[in-house]
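From: lab user (bench 3)
To: helpdesk
Subject: output format question, protein + inosine 5'-triphosphate

Hello, I'm new to running complex predictions and I'm not sure whether the block I got back is the full result or only part of it. Here's what I submitted:
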Amino acid sequence: MADRFVLATHNPGKLAEMKAILSNLGVEVLSPGEAGVEVDVEETGATFCENAMLKAKAVCAASGLPAIADDSGLCVNALNGGPGVYSARYGGEGLDDRKRCLLLLQSLRGQTTRAAHFACAVACAFPNGDTLEAEGRCDGAIAFAPLGEGGFGYDPVFLIPEKGKTFGQLTAEEKSAISHRGKALAAFAEKLGTYLKK
Ligand code: ITT
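Helpdesk reply: Thanks, we reran it on our side. This is the complete output you should expect:
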């Protein structure tokens, strides 16, 4: 695949995962810094797909290159699907990843229903106005305490019951093989392959 894509994300954890997965899938990518763009997009969409498309279109317009964005979040059954699209802002400004994890554990204290899933929407916008979209999901449960140093965000509290480990305890490759982002990007790469052949 000859074309180069800009990754429309400011999140270093996401950027590293997206670069690794897409490079493995044969898609050449640049970080916003490498592409010389700095765009702050207001995430006003109601869904992961809407927000991903807002980010992809804004970075495509600013860079003149096709742009790929990821909008993702943690959906917790006992919180009626929250924090969902508000995952990055859970608890308000000023909290870091570790504090957001602790706040989540606190809000589920005494709660035996721990089921949750990560959701990821990937959107791609091309300078000619064409767009592509794909989604991925990973089911799991919220742990009772943070475990593991790997990954980012809510990884230390997201448990994969079949593995008996949190995302934070997996290597980057192990996580991407089963994660919402790994699945969404694999589905996206397939659509991109078809699109580029046209
Ligand atoms: P960009 O919009 O710049 O990409 P962001 O961090 O604001 O970065 P989102 O709006 O999509 O991105 O927020 C997603 C949040 O959900 C993210 O900040 C994490 O807290 C959480 N999240 C998403 N994927 C995750 C993963 O694989 N592991 C842990 N937490 C994740």
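A quick orientation on your result: The chain has six helices and eight strands. Let us know if anything else is unclear.
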